[in-house]
Design brief:
By secondary structure, the protein is mostly helical. About 85% of the residues lie in helices and about 0% in strands. It is built from six helices and no strands. Helix 3 packs antiparallel against helix 4. The two termini are about 35 Å apart.
Length: about 190
């Protein structure tokens, strides 16, 4: 069965209304908090690495990631009560596949030791996940992933002496600004 032009137009209008309602719900019910949270976590991780060196990385990165994970879970519980969306298992499968292959590539390629290189590698995996989520759900996440990847690579290749400051300002800052965009300007 082929829909008529009017039926197709009506269906596309219904999809646009649904997407606008979803965006409004996310904006009203804490969707931006994830970006703010992880922007602050990235900035704190980078500043601790800059100030404390490798010892601070080993000491604080796991704690900051654990704290960010717990806070993300709390935000998810709050959001779950207010925004009801069916779990997209295919999307979660894609994320699991990306992370799984990322770990395998790390084991196979065995990049030279260096906290900056490992941080960039893991952060590029995160940027890739943002980009895939943007393709799957909404374009702002796609662009955020590309911007994060570009900023990380610029910092790594051109600003290595001040890499951790670069990541704090431009990595954490990009996520915080992305949260501001979602909260105040996303339509």
């Amino acid at each position: 069965m082929n829909p008529t032009k009017d039926e197709a137009t009506a269906a596309l209008a219904a999809v646009a209304r649904s997407q606008a309602a979803l965006r409004q719900a996310f904006r009203a019910h804490n969707g931006h908090y994830y970006l703010w949270l992880w922007g602050v976590v990235w900035a704190l991780m980078a500043l601790s690495a800059h100030c404390g060196g490798p010892a601070a990385i080993q000491r604080y990165f796991p704690l900051l990631c654990l704290g960010g994970g717990v806070a993300s879970g709390a935000i998810g519980l709050l959001q779950r009560r207010q925004v009801r969306i069916a779990t997209d298992w295919r999307f979660l499968g894609v994320l699991g596949t990306l992370l799984g292959f990322g770990v395998i590539w790390l084991l196979v390629l065995q990049p030279a030791r260096g906290s900056e290189k490992l941080f960039v590698y893991i952060s590029l995996m995160v940027a890739q996940i943002y980009a895939v989520a943007g393709i799957w759900f909404d374009s702002y996440l796609f662009w955020m992933g590309l911007v994060l990847a570009a900023l990380l690579l610029i910092g790594f290749f051109f600003f290595l002496p001040v890499f951790w400051i670069w990541v704090a300002v431009f990595g954490g800052g990009a996520l915080i600004l992305g949260g501001c965009y979602v909260r105040y300007f996303w339509r």
